[in-house]
Amino acid sequence: MSLNNTSLFSLLLMLFLHASPVFAGLGIDDSEDEEAETIISNEKLPWAVDLLAESRQAACHGQPLVVMFGSSRCPYCHVVRSLYMIPLMEDERYPGIITRELETDSDQLVRDFSGKQVTMAELAARHGVTLVPQVVVFVPDGRQAAKPIIGISNEDFYGYYLDQAILAGVEMISAGPNALPGAYACD
């Protein structure tokens, strides 16, 4: 056997051993991958109910409202939800931040920033959402604080893009309706 054939044979053997369940007892551990998939598929993000009230509640703490437009048929939505949106609610850098989800194909009613009830699908169309996941950072008057984050082309930079959009929202809120802390009606 030549050197090239030996290398190819070794590579194929390694791939076979790693992929074959027959060799599960040899120390090849895929349980971490299975556990991560379980976490991603089981976690939920609260649905948006009243965007104005939810954004004002976040603004009471100096934070914007972060909304993910998604779809139940979107595998990338599960990734963004689990790796970024849900952990954001516990992130100490953003105390009081509120994250919500809207499904672009849902007829469920939600109250928009003007107080009018519309379906989630209508609201998504109004915001020009055609691709999901799409994360939008809002301030209480309904303005977007930054460009929407569309898709998840690069997980290495996604957190950075999300942080930048949130910080833009924090800046807009701090210059908010009188630029005073507590200027929003807080519960």
Briefly characterize the structure:
The protein is α+β, with helices and mostly antiparallel strands.
Secondary structure topology:
Blueprint: H1 3-19, H2 31-42, H3 51-59, E1 65-70, H4 75-88, E2 98-103, E3 109-111, E4 117-119, H5 120-126, E5 134-138, E6 149-150, H6 155-174
Parallel strand pairs: 1-2
Antiparallel strand pairs: 1-5, 3-4, 5-6
Describe this protein's structure:
With 187 residues, this protein is of the alpha+beta class. It has a domain at 46-174: Glutaredoxin, CATH 3.40.30. The protein is built from 6 helices and 6 strands, in the order αααβαβββαββα. It has helices spanning 3-19, 31-42, 51-59, 75-88, 120-126, 155-174, and strands spanning 65-70, 98-103, 109-111, 117-119, 134-138, 149-150. The protein has a 4-stranded mixed beta sheet with strand order 2-1-5-6, sandwiched between helices. It has a two-stranded antiparallel sheet with strand order 3-4. It starts with a helix and ends in a 13-residue tail after the last helix. Mean pLDDT is 81; it is low at 5-41.
Strand order of the largest sheet: 2-1-5-6
Tally of helical segments? 6
SSE run: HHHEHEEEHEEH
Structural category is alpha+beta
Helix content: 40-55%
Work out the strand percent.
Answer: 5-15%
Q: How can the largest sheet be summarized? A: 4 strands, mixed
Shape type: globular
Low-confidence stretches: 5-41
CATH superfamily of the domain at 46-174: Glutaredoxin
**Do you know the CATH architecture of the domain at 46-174?**
3-Layer(aba) Sandwich
Measure the end-to-end span. 76 Å
- Count every beta strand, where a strand is a DSSP E run of 2 or more residues: 6
Which fold name is given in CATH as the topology of the domain at 46-174?
Answer: Glutaredoxin
In the CATH hierarchy, what is the class of the domain at 46-174? Alpha Beta
Radius of gyration: 22 Å
On the 0 to 100 scale, the average pLDDT is 81
